[in-house]
Amino acid sequence: MALEERARSCLLRFRHRLEQDIKPPYLMDHMISDGVLTGDEEERIRTQSTRKDQAVALLELLLKKDNYAYISFYNALVREAYDDLANLLYDDLPKMSQNAHKSNSDSNTSYVQTVLSEGGVPQRPVVFVSRPELVNRVREKLYRLQKDPGWVTVFGMAGSGKSVLAAEAVRHQGLIEECFPGGIHWLSIGQLDKPDLLSLDSQSLHRPPNSLDEAKERMRFLMLRRYPRALLILDDIWDSTVLKVFDIHCRILLTTRNRSLADSVSGAKYEVEVESGLDEKKGLEILALYTGTKPIALPEEARSIVRECKGSPLVVSLIGALLREKPNRWGYYLRQLRQKQFKRIRKSSSYDYDALDQAMAASIEVLPDEHRELYKDLTVLEKDIKIPAKVLSVLWDLEPEEVEDILEEFVNKSLLFVDSHNKPYLYYLHDLQLDFLVEQNRTQLEELYSLMFSLDWVSIKAKIMGPAHLINDYVEYGYILDKENSDVRSQFQEFLSLNGHQLEQRPFPDVVQLALSQPRTSEVYRQALLQAQDRTSKGKLYFDWLNKSSVESLSRLVIHPHQGSIYSACFSHDGAKIASSGASKTLKVFKSTSGEKLTEIPAHDDEVLCCAFSPDDRLLATCSSDRKVKVWNVERAMLLRVFEEEHEEQVNHCQFTNTTRRLLLATCSNDKMLNVKLWNLNKPTSQNTMFGHFEPVNHCCFSPDDTYVSTSSNDGTLKLFQVSSANEWKTINVRDMFAESDEDVLVKCSTWTADGKRVICAAKNAALVFDVETSDMLLEIRTNRLSTVQYCHACPTSNLLALAFSNYAVELWDLEANKKMADCSGHLSWVQRVQFSPDGSQLLSCSYDQTIRLWETKKVHTTSAVCLKRDSDVLFNDEEIIVSAADNCNRLQVRDGRTGSVLFQSEEKSSRIRCTSMCRQPSAVALGQEDGTVQVLEVPSGKTLATLEGHTKTVLHCQFCQNGQTLITSSEDTTIRVWKWQSGECKVLQGHKEQVRCFSPLSNSPDNTRLLSWSFDGTVKTDATSPPPLLTRPLRFNTYTHTWDETYLFAPVSNNATYYTSASSPQTSSELITLQHRRTDVLPQLISEAISFSGYGR
To answer: What CA–CA distance (Å, rounded) separates 560 from 799?
Structure first.
């Protein structure tokens, strides 16, 4: 049989690429196994001097061979991972099903059909899609039975197409003539105890056999005398007892779901595993054949159906047959599949089971009773998640070795899959198997999911699978868990939602310590406390948070999607998904309810600075420091467009129009002039370029009706452009609003109110609201001078404005009342982006701390905006704990540490409070301010007892001595002052050359007459509270010392005042901290080696 013209033309067309890339020795091994290449031909090719010459010789030989050789060559490319080259040949693969290997004449085709019909081999299905690689693998095994009897086992899960594959493999004249001239005989066995073994020649038998042994002897006689060198195909074998009847020294091909069945018989054995699903192209081909359309014309639901069932041939065929009769039900059957309504996907066919639930149930019913119940427990697994046996060891309370034996049985019966490339082995279910279990066991899940109320189970599963899948369990099955205890379900879900980002860290954190942070009424806390008490009795240390009842958690969900800073995050327009991007160069999409990852794409060659959903949520745009703009299909994670020619510098931001009426994409970059562009996705180049900015543009934003686009630039302006003409409409000089400042004004971003009448921009430490028509400034929101506004976003359904800050905070403001409504604290680094959900119910924020936080708008909206600063002091008095700290309104507050109740609150101070100290007797509190003033106030009356003036710069630290009569302060003015605060008498300690960060009284000295102080000048000094200093030592010893260009951060003293620990950081870097332990009386003695930590900023 000569090579088909299409295949020949394909080889010639791509000959050059094949010669350039392939390595013939690897490919020829497979082709020899397939019988299309002889040893002599291989030797002639190997003698060629270079790899390319070998490739040329192989292709020359291939052009002279037949269709079977072409298919073998294609399969070899696939096996050796030449996927790109195999794809070039795929469309022109010859159809081998009805053409013989040696000849393609009609008589030979009739011969094959006659042989198969006589043997009862099923005809090819009406809708048939070739699977050439699998067919060839089965044929290759069958060729091994040419000389000697043996067994070929074709195994796979229910509905994977084993029977069709077996019938197609023997539809080959060369195979029949060379290996099985006695014919091909097909027996459909199924779940029978005593199958009808006499169907080959019923007339020759006078009575049925009385036993299986008698049946076996009759079958042996029949095969050896009447049908020598015949192939017996046993379809759908379930029981090894039945299989033993056919252990009669003949040639047998069997199809089964149980891989281990052939272990019970003797003779040579070969295996072919059938993958559980077709690829997307094959699945679409089946649907196209059923519905009489071309694959390219199928609706999007077709791809979703194939993906949802993972290409199961049975499911695709069942749905295809249903659609042939009712072609307008694409969406309906997709919904039924997603809702696991398998009984509604039912169609009479030649398959033994006309619905998927029947096929799946049959597989499970053959398990022993005890194993059947264990298999049902696998409902707790997640889709596409592989787990080791030790997880199920906890679930089943069995020894790991016993669990491994049970799992091996499930794998052998095609009820479970194993990834043997990992150690230990990882096990997983096919999506259809899992969906079936969930649907079947829905009424039994209450008992099963009680596991989810166990802190041990949560810890193990989170460690193996990550927290997002667990959170999704609580969301998806909440209605079942709530029947048992809705409060406990809510407590576990909240614990995971707020600590999930911690549970993704490695090394894995101590879950008991995390759980001790939960409210005392929580079941999570109760279980953690019991475990902590047990472990502390064995020497482990745990901390119990005493005043947690006074702290309200405002975050609803905390996600850690990337390894690296997150620059952008956005809601989909339906609010169900969140996309994020950042320094990791990846784009991720996950569920907004649980953080479960849906898609991960290696998007760019450099940091991904922004991502944005299209208004219909089908597309995602990304832009990057690599100067490229890309557009992706969300559902398929497929790249659709790349715009890489026009931006010459990094692209900072991208955004789609708000409606699909005229879909456009806006981008802006660091280009000097051509820095704002509009793209029509159907065109290879930009549709318009907007001129006006001559400095980098940081942000672009469409108005709600898509009439205008606002741009924010480093040139200090906010510009409004008309979308239709790309002409500049207005320029707002934001820099003029900061006339008092000599610094450059960088406009970070802009946002529009829902009515489109106001536009808001962020610059420096302010958010400015402008009237769109008049360009007048309507409102100015000025914030802390020490932080900058990084981003702003107006709520689409209310008057709220969200602000992201460099001081790690997120604030909510009411634009109508010009009032701050809430502080959303929790991030540990700069907050880079904030965005409201489309319905305004949620707010997301992303940060350099690698987390995304979700906030419930109503919850934070009604929460007090007051929060305490970190400059605080604590007084421990027996069981009483008193805390003093400045709040965000620059008032000093004194609170009960256990309950959080306010004992005293001062009026707002004109200068920022930088430190505070409490005194037991008399009951007083001291505060130091940025203007150098120190005040002492009586508690709880608030009466001013003393105002101490002397420092010329910010007071950094203050502390009462034990007698309560002396107050010590340190300052940026390089001095330490010792005050008799009631009289105002002051002594000044000098010697440091830069600001004195802090000091510590040496508690074993009488009346605290000695101090240890440390400074930004890189020295630690031991002083008396009256001059001169007792001891001064700059620490410069070997590689462990703090040198002259380092800054002291802290130097706490041991309780016996004998040792202190110092920590420093280079003044020119924020990456290194060095710890040292030293004696306070003899500083040069080094107590321990330095320990370096990275990632700490001064």
So the answer is: 30
User: Which residues, 6+ apart, have CB-to-CB distance to 713 below 8 Å?
Assistant: 675, 693, 695, 696, 697, 698, 719, 747
Mean pLDDT across 80-86: 82
Backbone torsions φ then ψ of 363, nearest 5 degrees: -65, -40
| Among the listed residues 584, 607, 684, the one whose alpha carbon sits nearest the alpha carbon of residue 642 | 684
Q: Say which DSSP state 498 is in.
A: H
* Amino acid letter, residue 1006: P
- Average the pLDDT over each of 5-14, 194-203, 632-641, 642-651 and give the range with the smallest value: 194-203
Q: Centre a 10 Å sphere on the Cβ of residue 121 and count the other Cβ atoms it contains.
A: 23
- What the block records as the tokens of 797 is 């359904």
Tokens of 505: 């860290």
What is the tens place of the pLDDT at every residue in 50-82? 888 999 999 999 888 888 888 888 888 877 778
Structure tokens at 209: 């056999």
C-alpha span between 870 and 889 (Å, rounded): 13
Of 90-99, 147-156, 479-488, 538-547, which range is least confident?
A: 90-99
Q: List C-alpha distances in Å: 837 to 272, 754, 796, 820.
A: 51, 13, 8, 20
How far apart CA 592 and CA 557 sit, in angstroms, is 9
The pLDDT value recorded for residue 297 is 87
Cα(437)–Cα(443) distance, rounded to whole angstroms?
11
Q: How far apart are CA 533 and CA 549, in angstroms?
A: 21
Structure tokens that stand for 779 in this block: 């409102």
Query: Interhelix angle for 83-90 vs 67-79, to 10°?
Result: 150
The rounded distance, in Å, linking the Cα atoms of 555 and 316 is 43
The CA distance from 768 to 444, in Å, is 58
Beta strand ranges found along 715-817 (DSSP E):
717-722, 728-733, 747-752, 758-763, 766-771, 777-782, 789-794, 800-805, 810-814
What is the chain's length?
A: 1098
**What is the pTM (predicted TM-score) of this model?**
0.54
Please state, in angstroms and rounded to a whole number, the distance separating the CA atoms of residues 579 and 587.
7
Q: Is cis: bond before 940, omega within 30 of 0?
A: yes
Assign 214 a pLDDT band (cuts: 50, 70, 90): low
Distance, CA of 314 to CA of 322 (rounded, Å)? 12
8 A C-beta contact, residue 620 and residue 632: yes
Report pLDDT for 397: 77
- b/e string for 554-569 if b means 16 or more Cβ within 10 A? bbbbbbbbbeebbbbb
pLDDT of residue 333: 82
Sign of CA dihedral 714, 718, 723, 726: negative
What is the model's pLDDT at position 1057? 57
Mean model confidence pLDDT for the chain: 81
> Kind and range of the H or E element at 68?
helix 67-79
- Burial classification of residue 632, based on how many CB atoms lie within 10 Å of its CB (0-12 exposed, 13-18 middle, 19 or more buried): buried
Q: Which range scores top for mean pLDDT: 73-82, 92-101, 376-385?
A: 73-82
Map residue 629 onto helix, strand or coil.
Answer: strand
What are the Cα distances from residue 306, in Å, to 160, 342, 503, 601, 987?
13, 15, 34, 21, 83
Neighbours of 644 (CB within 10 A): 12
Q: Which residue in the block uniquely carries the two structure tokens 């019988």?
A: 35
CA distance 629 to 781: 34
Distance CA 411, CA 878 (A): 63
Segment 252-267 shows an average pLDDT of 87
- Encode burial over 886-899: b for 16+ CB neighbours within 10 A, e otherwise: bbbebebbbbebee
What is the rounded (10 degree) CA torsion for 224, 227, 233, 234? -50
DSSP state of 1070: S
Question: Which residues is 612 bridged to in the sheet?
Answer: 621
Identify how many contiguous H helices and E strands the chain contains and give both numbers. 29, 55
* Adjacent-strand bridge partners of 718: 712, 732
Q: Rounded to whole angstroms, what are the CA distances from 579 to 234, 489, 614, 619, 709?
A: 51, 27, 12, 11, 23
